[in-house]
Design brief:
Blueprint: H1 3-28, E1 46-51, E2 57-61, E3 64-68, E4 73-76, E5 91-96, E6 102-106, E7 111-115, E8 120-124, E9 139-144, E10 150-154, E11 157-162, E12 167-171, E13 186-191, E14 197-201, E15 217-222, E16 227-231, E17 246-251, E18 257-261
Antiparallel strand pairs: 1-2, 2-3, 3-4, 5-6, 6-7, 7-8, 9-10, 10-11, 11-12, 13-14, 14-15, 15-16, 17-18
Length: 267
């Protein structure tokens, strides 16, 4: 190797080392900034954060719904004598749909719809005398699929919400029908890159009795036929689902499907 080539090789190595050092330094030097002090009614844990199409940041919290515009907060908290507020103080979760509507999961009080333009709330509650209402007031998940359809998970089954008729269609476990959802306690709703819907189910409490209706599991949902393919834990089968309490779902960039379960490991 000539002197000039050795020198060039040496410079390339030095440059590569400096780039790596700089990259590591940038990755490690993270500055955290405390934004504007929250209002007095902003209390408890933040359960979810989302950004709307206008760039505003929304916080779902144990004390209500809060909008942050970069300088100040605007509060939307429960008021028992004002129906144009969230149905409860605690907001377990939220989802912004493609139309900019915010859907809220008020703790144990059904499903809330909030229009940030008109600042109007609509409340959807279960009614034993009306089969078109939400399956249960314990709403655990809300999801908008690629077709713009809204899916609602509850502790009494999966619902599809029709925005035009304002009615809910129910998908529930039937012990004598293996093509129904494996468990009525829905934990997570997910859609993969092929448009296939996946429903994770199971009770969140370890001490809950393992009755047939609460067995849990992962469900592949065919929206056209309304049928489910079940994937559950099978004792002694190491290729089956590791645990029936499914809490999280993700398809990564390589197409690998990840299932987060109630215990500490993923499979």
């Amino acid at each position: 190797m000539t002197l000039s080539r050795r020198l060039l090789y040496f410079l390339v190595i030095v440059l590569y080392g400096l780039l790596r050092l700089n990259t590591q330094s940038v990755a490690q030097d993270m500055d955290f900034e405390l934004v504007a002090r929250p209002p007095e009614d902003f209390a408890g844990a933040i359960t979810q954060i989302a950004q709307d199409q206008q760039g505003f940041i929304w916080f779902a919290a144990e004390s209500g719904l809060f909008k942050y515009d970069g300088q100040r907060y605007i509060s939307h908290t429960h008021d028992p004598i004002n129906t144009n507020t969230p149905a409860d103080f605690k907001i377990w979760g939220m989802m912004l749909d493609r139309e900019g509507i915010i859907w809220l999961l008020p703790g144990g009080f059904g499903l809330d719809r909030f229009d940030p333009v008109t600042e109007k709330f609509m409340h959807y509650r279960h009614n034993d005398n009306d089969s078109t209402t939400v399956s249960h007031d314990q709403v655990t998940a809300v999801f908008e699929d690629r077709d713009g359809k809204l899916w609602v998970g509850t502790t009494a089954g999966l619902d599809k919400f029709d925005k035009t008729t304002q009615t809910f269609t129910h998908y529930r476990n039937k012990p004598d029908d293996p093509n129904t959802i494996s468990c009525n306690q829905v934990r997570v709703i997910y859609e993969d890159r092929q448009g296939v819907m996946w429903i994770g189910t199971g009770n969140q409490y370890d001490q809950y009795p393992w009755t047939e209706d609460h067995i849990g599991g992962l469900n592949k949902f065919d929206k056209r036929s309304g049928t489910f393919t079940r994937f559950t834990h099978k004792k002694g089968d190491t290729t089956s689902l590791a645990d029936n309490r499914v809490e999280a779902l993700l398809e990564d960039s390589r197409g690998t499907f990840w299932v987060g379960r109630r215990t500490t490991h993923v499979r």
